[in-house]
Amino acid sequence: MLLSSVRTRSRTNDDLAHVHLRGLPKHHCIGWRPNPQVAPYRWEFTESGRDFAVDVNPRATTNDMRVMIQPACAGAGLTFGMEEAFRSSIAPAELVPLLEEFCPPFPGFYLDYPTRRNVPLKLHVLVDYLRQRRRDTSTPMG
């Protein structure tokens, strides 16, 4: 999901109204990367049933999606991530989604594990927790 601050959008509405996927590298972006030795995450989109990624040149990067929210809400740039990570900022309209037609819904994570009689206790606890969470939430986990 591609997001912009409400402040940024109101201040530069004409600019953001014309955001196009190919022009994203020209915008101020806030990126994610797992560690400093790895290139920033390429933003993934779908157009006409075809998946592709866009390289952006982020002004700042972090390995924590929660940290990405603060500068995005302050209007420092566009950011990209899973809706679940940004939901608390979307609901009060601090951040607004952009280019939603190119961001298909994320079906959730999947957990593959061996089905055998003697599942390690830690794995068994994790599977039970995830099953319970899935039952308790309206958002499917996969």
Structural account:
This protein is α/β, with parallel strands linked by helices. It has 2 domains: 2-102, Periplasmic binding protein-like II (D-Maltodextrin-Binding Protein, domain 2), CATH 3.40.190.10; 107-142, no CATH class. The chain is 31% helix and 20% strand. The protein contains 5 helices and 7 strands, in the order βααββββαβαβα. The chain has helices at residues 6-11, 13-17, 65-73, 83-90, 121-136; strands at 2-5, 29-32, 43-47, 50-54, 60-62, 78-80, 95-98. The protein has a 5-stranded mixed beta sheet with strand order 5-2-6-1-7. The protein has a two-stranded antiparallel ribbon with strand order 3-4. β3 and β4 (50-54) form a beta hairpin. The longest helix is centred in the C-terminal third of the chain and has 16 residues, at 121-136. The chain is elongated. The two termini are 18 Å apart.
Tell the overall outline: elongated
What integer is the average pLDDT? Answer: 79
Biggest pleated sheet: 5 strands, mixed
Using only CA atoms, what is the Rg? 18 Å
**Any idea of the CATH class of the largest domain?**
Alpha Beta
- Can you count the helices? 5
Summarize the SSE layout with pairings.
Elements: E1 2-5, H1 6-11, H2 13-17, E2 29-32, E3 43-47, E4 50-54, E5 60-62, H3 65-73, E6 78-80, H4 83-90, E7 95-98, H5 121-136
Parallel strand pairs: 2-5, 2-6
Antiparallel strand pairs: 1-6, 1-7, 3-4
Keywords:
142 residues, alpha/beta, D-Maltodextrin-Binding Protein, domain 2, 2 domains, five-stranded mixed sheet, two-stranded antiparallel ribbon, 5 helices, elongated
